[in-house]
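Lab channel / #folding
Pinned by the channel admin:
"Please post every new chain as: sequence first, then the structure tokens as a reply. Keep commentary short and put observations after the output so the thread stays searchable."

First post following the new format, from NK:
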Amino acid sequence: MKHKLLNGLYVFYRCTLVAVLVGTALCVPARASSFQFLSVTSPVVSPTQLESSSGISLFPTLEVINKTNTLQGVSLVIKNIPSSGSIKVSHQGIESEQVGFDEKSGYVFFSGIHIGSVDPTENGQSGTNLVIQFNTSASTAGVQSVLRQLRFFDSASVPGSLSLSVTFGDTPIINGKPVFQVASGSDNPFEAFYVGGYPAPVLADLDDDGDLDAYIGGGNDYYFENIGTASKAEFVQRTGEDNVLQNVDDRYYTKMSFVDIDNDGDIDALGGESGGALQFFQNDGTKTQAKFVDKTVWGESYQNIWVDEYSAPSFTDIDDDGDVDLFVANHSGDVVFFRNNGTKASPLFELSKAADNPFSNINIFTLPSLQFVDFDNDGDADAFSGSFAGSIQYFENTGSANSPVFELASFSDNPMGGVDVGDASTPYPADIDGDGDLDIIVGERFGKVLLYRNISAFTLDINGEPVIRGSSSVSVPENSSSVGPYNASDRENEDITWAISGTDSALFTINENGRLSFISLPNFETPRDEDGDNIYLFELQAIDARGAIGRFSVSVAVTDVSEPITINQLNMPAVSEADVESVGGAAIFSTVEVPDTGNSYNNILFLVSEFPEGSVLDIKTRESSASSIIWDKSLGTVTLDSVVIADVVETNIGQENGTLAITFNSSATYDMVQAVLRSIHYSNPSTVSGILRLQASFGSRPLANLAGIRFERVSDEDTPFLGSIRLAYLAFADMDDDDDLDVFSGEYGGSVYYSKNTGSKSKPSFTRQSGSASLLDNLDVGNSARPAAVDINGDGLIDIFVGNSRAGIRYFKNTGTMREPKLTEQSGDQNPLGEGDFQGYTSPAFVDIDKDGDKDVFVGQSNGYIKYFANIGTATQAIFEERTGIDNPLNNVNVGSVASPVFTDMDRDGDYDVVIGESLGELKLYINTGSSTTPHFVLHSATPFPFNAASLGKVPAPAFADIDNDRDADLFVGSNDSNILYFRNLSNLGIQIAETNDAPKIVGTNSVIVKSAETFVQHLSVTDEEGHAIQFSIT
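Reply from TO:
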């Protein structure tokens, strides 16, 4: 039947839908797809799951849409099962809606009814194919349930991608988007042909022999007959009378679309061309001997069917009403839509309004070649198009089969996203190898026709679990947070996320680099593990991006250690000169407190030395009903309550280099030690008032107090920085794990330099590093760069923060190793101080001021005030929160301008004091009169620093470091306009000896008789032993 369409274009319509892809009108010989499969998942499984007794479900959510009336004789075929693998039907039972399987007979049941059988020789076991043939009793619901009960096992699975070939009847089952691979050489039946510029291939069975022939338009028109088969094409060019398209008008850039448009059982054609017109070629031959005749009606109506240059027609049933509609693309990328408002028997194509055109607002590349395919197997027509640029666009239909909505897919979501043929791509879908899926044939500008084979399959992503390496059994001394480093490797090189689970997991944290730590410091005496035996048990988990979990059991044993021995309250009491000169002497450690640390004092040495000539130290014998202390000088022992607790050795007592050494034994307790120290008396008949300086140590810790604080300026020649570091602010740290201190120097101009200690621990020599070895090469933070070194994330690596004049603090995380540091700047949320509100000239100082096991930070500012940020996170994940008012222990401190704080235990009393530089060139010492957990800072007016009267330069910034390895912190002062000043720490115990002041002696007569009118009474004689001036008064 002939119909007049498009005002002069006569079109005749009849078309068979393409196999597999619903809603297309490509007119290939394969029968229509009988089935559609929805919700085919892309499972990610692990080797552990496959090797388990339950295996994994292949199609747990699959939905089957059956377009036939019967399932009799339809088979499920699964190929490419590995030799170590098996697939079987999981038996549920024979009740309603249950799948049953009898392994002996191979019968498959649904709801107790026999619906199919497993082939005895292809039963899916040990690498054989699985074939299940269904019978007439099979229903769609039964087939769907059987597919959902298929389970896959593999006893020797390895990570990677495993592809199974799965077909049900004539329909492949795949997961994910189609995968295409370019064919080359003899694998591409078009390889040997050159067909001129801009080829536009179209495939159809033009001779009705069951295979696909090819028409290639474009700059020229060619017909290639397939003399091979449906599964292995072999093309031969036909010319002259053998060319069924010889009567096609040879117009430039012809793009053909084949349809059975006149409902006579053979294929007709509609073609576009460079001028923009559409040509209709009716097949006046037969199914086996086609003869195409131009039936286009030309004349006045030609202008009415013009759709701009380079028209390219394509058909699809876009509204799912059973007939095909027409889309025509043009050179500019516009797509004109003609809806078929007729029927399959009487089509009527009418131009649709823009609102009804699903491509009206879509940008298609220049010189498109639009084709329709259900790429995602969801029952509606998607589209893809070639372009002059050579790439292929994919438009996913996110609407429905009758109400389409097309969206341009991203590169990663485009099955042909990686294809770029150079110029002028013209893709066409066809099943060139007869395997039930569509391949893509693509022409390109210079005459080649490329084949992209569809290698899609049902793919299992076998994702290997990350492998964790590290120690499974760790011993950690108490009061140490670090457990150790762990690393995880992933075969697929995916990002790893760490997690901790199990019994004691809540007590630990692990950072992104695998550094495992206690959240708070463990204490052997007060264990917190679940069973209280100081052995902490948990499981480390390394989780890759797709959810595979590597597991590693860890046991951490906390061991008892001899904790640091400290003596508190070393602000020694003043004693009088008279008491020291007396025979018994004065108690010089009467206020000492020895804290109860729970440790043994065995072999702890208390040593006093360097006291003046004539000095005598004595352990005063004390006897009472409560307790008694006896120093037996003949035996060299100290006994407390009849228990020998120490040995005493006197060396050169009374001489200038004399020493008193008290070595405690295992019987000594903290209160016994304290009692002995408080009983030490000092005497010297030649004592004069002033400061008595003694060197003293308790265990490994040298002792000092405020009266004994003393620093001595070291000459420039003996300063290790001379010539390499000037006008700078310093931060010391062992950056390369070689057991000596290296140094960062922030210069006033804004640069930060790293100088490596190439000397030794006790005699350093600093060499400035350059290039990548400088760690912060070319860094410029603005004026007054002030570095601070701290391990802020508990990974054992020193990180760097840098304050500056611009009111910010920059953070450089150490992403290297212990031996090879590498500093990488962190910004935004990765900088824990990035959001701080500062006044400028920021000077950060990190210290555990509340003794909770993590670093807090104080920040000096240009206005002279110091902000305090408490770490409310952990030692491995710092979270800083500003504390103000009375919650800031330095709230009331203001040094004028440009405060530069640094913390050190100046008086060695077990808590942190603070030294603050200020802009006028002085350092101020604030003593912590509180405790190590609750600080209270008081300005120490009697400054111990001998250089405040000298020039320290403008805006001095102090830094402390034990640069000479003598167990005390030496002082360095940098500034804006001076060399680095070095002050050696000579602090010791200083005991204030007060001058003895006896009353003057008056000699005279107590009772005197004076005559009347006389004024003179008597002459008094006055003497003063200390020689002080005398003033009289009468009361």
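NK: The helical segments are 47-51, 140-148, 577-581, 670-678.
TO: also worth noting, The longest strand covers residues 113-123.
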